[in-house]
Amino acid sequence: VRAPEKPALGREPPPAAGEVETGVGLATPQLYREVWVNAELLPNHHRQHIFVAGIDPATSRVRGPSAPLSESLVVTDWGPRWSPDGRSIAFARNAAVEAGRLSQQTVIHSLATGNDRFLDLIARQWFNDGRCLLYTRNPGMIGGARQRAGIMRIDIESGKSIEVVSDRFGPVIPSHDDATLYASAGNAIVAFDVRTGSEVTRIPLPAASFGANVSYESLSLSPDGRTFAVWTDHGLLRIGIDGTGYRELYPAEPPDWGTRPVWTRDGRGILIAVRDDNQLWRLLRVPAAGGTPTFTGLEVRGYQDFNFAFDVSPDGARIVFDGIAPRILPTSAR
Q1: What is the 3-state secondary structure (H, E, C) of the chain?
Q2: Full-model pTM
Q3: What is the pLDDT of residues 115-165, one digit of tens each?
């Protein structure tokens, strides 16, 4: 099953006024036109923003207009995640400090007040208590001492970090009760006890029929906490937390590239974003039971190293995403 075909970059002019909703905060329609036709117009670290739009909880149809959370042309904002209570959005920010050097921060944006809180590290995965974020501690030399890899938890109010799992490197997600962390590990999903940091179970993953040497790159947990959606370098699959119910849902083929899957609130659909070879990302809804994906109407232009990220609010009515020049199209568009 393939996403709807789109013309190659540079062959399709932007739509006429009123046809679709265009990117907000990119100064002028002319700049929007130039960015859409030429994704290399602006330097990479000058052009990426966070946007919020409406989304139909039942159909996942994205509804405009989108609104930017940031409009600065001197930072890159990326990787947004909605807080469990729906009141805040955490996202990463790269800002130029001086020539050749970037500062990385996590921005926690309050939707109620519009105020931002900053953490001097990248931590976007929320615990479900809404008080803490997870981040990866990279291995290496820090201040003359060797630092080992680990999964860390940071308290947003105090800024204090503690190690949850040692000698682990890579993305993890918490269970809905925050008692367990799940991480992909080659051909398995590994569960760790948050209190002790020890491994408690290992969920084997069958060899995927749509590719050898599959990399299991990102996970998300269904609303009932019983099923994983897993994006691999060969497509989307699902599997129960007990290892049952394995099913391949979306076999991606080059040049497709996907991102972290997000479940719909009712657990009947899984949202994925798929990129073509023209750096155009399209948001699709894949039936969790299997079947034909549907286009949600959202597409975002990126540059070569841009890895589109999005999340849906806990009430299922809003979507947050990063990128440049987003467009919200009729779902019948080809």
Answers
A1: CCCCCCCCCCCCCCCCCCCCECCCCCCCHHHHHHHHHCCCCCCHHHCCEEEEEEECCCCCCEEEEEEECCCCCCEEEEEEEECCCCCEEEEEEEEEEECCEEEEEEEEEECCCCCEEEECCCCCEECCCCCEEEEEECCEEECCEEECCEEEEEECCCCCEEEEEECCCCCEEECCCCCEEEEEECCEEEEEECCCCCEEEEEECCCCCCCCCCCEEEEEECCCCCEEEEEECCEEEEEECCCCCCEEEEECCCCCEECCCEECCCCCEEEEEEECCCCEEEEEEEECCCCCCEEEEEEEECCCCCCCCEEECCCCCEEEEEEEEEEECCCCCC
A2: 0.81
A3: 999 998 889 899 999 999 999 887 775 666 777 888 999 999 999 999 999
